[in-house]
């Protein structure tokens, strides 16, 4: 009788311990199934390549597959809206960018998500530096000379971009405000026709992502005047920064990050953040993407990520407001 009673008490005690440990065990088990990484660009480009390498690294650390799902369209808004409406369970992650998190909310009058309310930014993964490239027909070998040349011809020079409200257009508008140049904007549907216009001297200046313009610079079809980063780039070591060219404090770059729906449990978001930080510390990641013009970022604390986004919003908000740029 005593033996049966003791056995029963042990079973009750074990059940009580299991019940108490249950929630903690479930919490510690995240993730328990594959994670989806939603990419707002088509397959094959630099953003897609970066996403797939990130997915591989995250999968190794998290112990679950991380599946890339491409959802291009509407200047990243198709994917952003999809993730904003996804279940906030930590299993849907967004490849965010300054287009989706900063520019679109300020540019578009109708937008189906609220970047600040709907998303929790986890990290800034990579910056895409911009290079100021000029037509070979322009008799300027550096940015200071180009500014002097343009100021002597107000309103007579054109600059190309990939569209109104794009980061490339806003970078030139920021440059105009800092230098006093009067340039006419000529938007194109994509970087290829914009760069063609530059090579044909239909336009004289363009801010472009380094990866696109680099081959043309190396082939001497365009000339690089300056890079818009705070430091020189390894792929263009002889090209000075805008700040070095006589305009201190100038900085402009596009970027990619990772974000999740705002209501994801804090513990799960922190688990994801820790895994991402581990991937970013891998020197092989930098070595792989630096030749493509992507500068992999060091891990940031949440406060640093929030400050980075706030600085970006302030920088581009001033440009958008000053030029009264709005999209339908």
TrEMBL record:
Which sequence ranges form a coiled-coil region, renumbered to this chain?
A: none
CDD domains per the UniProt record, alphabetical: PBP2_Bug_TTT
**Mind telling me which Pfam families this protein's record contains?**
TctC (PF03401)
The residue range of the signal peptide is 1-28
Which InterPro entries does the UniProt entry name for this protein? BUG, Bug_dom1
Superkingdom as given in the UniProt entry: Bacteria
**UniProt keyword annotations, A-Z:** Signal
- Chloroplast among the record's keywords? no
Q: Which family does it belong to?
A: Belongs to the UPF0065 (bug) family.
**In its UniProt entry, what is this protein called?**
Tripartite tricarboxylate transporter substrate binding protein
**Organism of this sequence:** Achromobacter pestifer
């Amino acid at each position: 009788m005593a033996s049966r009673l003791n056995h029963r008490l042990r079973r009750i005690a074990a059940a009580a311990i299991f019940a108490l440990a249950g929630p903690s065990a479930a919490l510690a088990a995240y993730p328990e199934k594959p994670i989806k990484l939603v990419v707002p660009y088509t397959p094959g480009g630099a953003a897609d390549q970066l996403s797939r390498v990130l997915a591989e690294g995250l999968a190794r650390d998290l112990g679950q597959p991380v599946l890339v799902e491409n959802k291009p369209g509407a200047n990243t808004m198709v994917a952003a809206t999809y993730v904003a409406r996804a279940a906030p369970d930590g299993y849907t992650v967004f490849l965010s960018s300054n287009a989706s998190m900063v520019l679109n909310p300020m540019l578009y009058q109708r937008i189906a998500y609220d970047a600040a309310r709907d998303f929790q930014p986890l990290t800034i993964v990579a910056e895409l530096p911009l290079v100021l490239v000029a037509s070979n027909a322009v008799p300027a070998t550096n940015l200071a000379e180009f500014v002097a040349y343009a100021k002597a011809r107000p309103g007579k020079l054109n600059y190309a971009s990939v569209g109104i409200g794009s980061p490339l257009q806003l970078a030139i508008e920021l440059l105009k405000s800092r230098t006093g140049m009067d340039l006419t904007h000529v938007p194109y549907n994509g970087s290829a026709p914009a760069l063609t216009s530059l090579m044909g001297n239909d336009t004289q200046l363009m801010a472009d992502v380094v990866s696109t313009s680099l081959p043309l610079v190396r082939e001497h079809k365009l000339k690089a005047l300056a890079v818009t980063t705070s430091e020189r780039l390894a792929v263009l070591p002889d090209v000075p920064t805008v700040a070095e060219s006589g305009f201190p404090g100038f900085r402009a770059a596009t970027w990619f990050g990772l974000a999740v729906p705002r209501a994801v449990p804090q513990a799960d978001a922190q688990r994801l953040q820790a895994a991402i930080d581990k991937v970013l510390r891998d020197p092989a990641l930098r070595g792989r993407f630096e030749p493509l013009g992507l500068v992999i970022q060091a891990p940031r604390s949440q406060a640093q990520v929030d400050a980075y986004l706030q600085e970006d919003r302030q920088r581009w908000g001033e440009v958008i407001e000053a030029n009264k740029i709005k999209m339908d």
